[in-house]
Amino acid sequence: MTKAEAENMRPAFPLFSNLPPELRNQIWHEALPHDDDVQPALYFYKTGCWNSRMLVEEDEGYMPGQPGNNLTLEFRHDKLDLARVEVPLAKANTEAQSIVLAWAREKGYCVRTERGGPVILRAFDPYRDILYIAQSRWITFLDEPSERLFWPDLVHKNIQVRAHIWRIAVPESFIWNQATNLANFVSDWDYNYTCIKKLYIIIDPPEELDREATETSSDNNEVPSYWRLKELQVASSWDGEAWTRKGNMDDGIEHDHTNNQLQQPWPPVLDEATLKFQNGLTEVGNTQFEIQPSLISREPE
To answer: Residue 144 to residues 44, 49, 163, 253, 278: CA-CA distances in angstroms?
Structure first.
């Protein structure tokens, strides 16, 4: 169900309120997003996510009887700001909102209120979601784990470093200006960034994207914007030996005439990225990596 459909629910079904409550509830529940409907979300990198802890028996890499070797420094996704879950039903009416709130609690999502109804937020899922790094934050992002190793709780100790980041996104300008640094980053064994399997290149991003990505808010109740990512129908996949081109530019989008690069049959930035990444991926024996050009837009609130 789209937002427009949710907002037009009552005019389209004038007798809906006359249906038995059990049937109305069933209809509302059928309109809720299924797990497969929840799209990958874009989360902005922020400082303070690298934290230390002791591994336990259930953790990968735990060494029995070796407490001195079980200290790890890891990137804590749960410290990232929450992202919106698109639930158009939350804008329908109070009855629908009560269904949405119960569903959100069951899913472990966070609920905040803004004009027009509740907003559903969820934490970063490393298996699905994407960490966006603004170009101005890149050096900070690279330096933070190495600087954290010199804090009193970690200095002179054996540390396992774990990033647990599978998907990252950067603006297109980053590929032209700092692609070599990025290629070295995804082949960095020291901080386990070799786990990164997919790079999203944001084509011609709006200025407010990086502005919002670099702002630090102290208001934990602030409702974030909803950024929608749309993958272009082209990509390059690395299999350990060669790049494979996928798709074409027939993506059904009416591209702005000022964005000439998107009018071409193959985005030049994609070739630039594959060229810069190949040596690093080969060096570490990475056999699975994908570069995905994408568009992004901020949805109206």
So the answer is: 15, 9, 12, 39, 26
Look at residue 36 and tell me if it is in a domain: no
CB atoms within 10 A of CB 210: 20
Residues 258 and 269 in one domain: yes
* Residue in the block written with tokens 């997919």: 198
Considering the domain architecture, whether residues 222 and 100 belong to the same structural domain is answered as: no
What count of other Cβ atoms lies within 10 Å of the Cβ of residue 48? 11
Domain count, the chain: 2
| Segment 29-51, tens digit of pLDDT | 888 888 777 788 999 999 999 99
The CA distance from 198 to 202, in Å, is 13
Sign of CA dihedral 276, 282, 285, 289: positive
Q: Tens digits of per-residue pLDDT, 57-110?
A: 888 888 898 878 889 999 999 999 999 888 888 888 888 889 999 999 999 999
- Measured CA to CA in angstroms, residue 82 lies from 100, 124, 224, 228 at distances of 18, 7, 8, 15
Residues 147 and 227 grouped into a single domain: yes
- The residue range of the domain holding 106 is 1-31+83-122
Given 69, 103, 122, the domain boundary residue is 122
Distance CA 110, CA 119 (A): 8
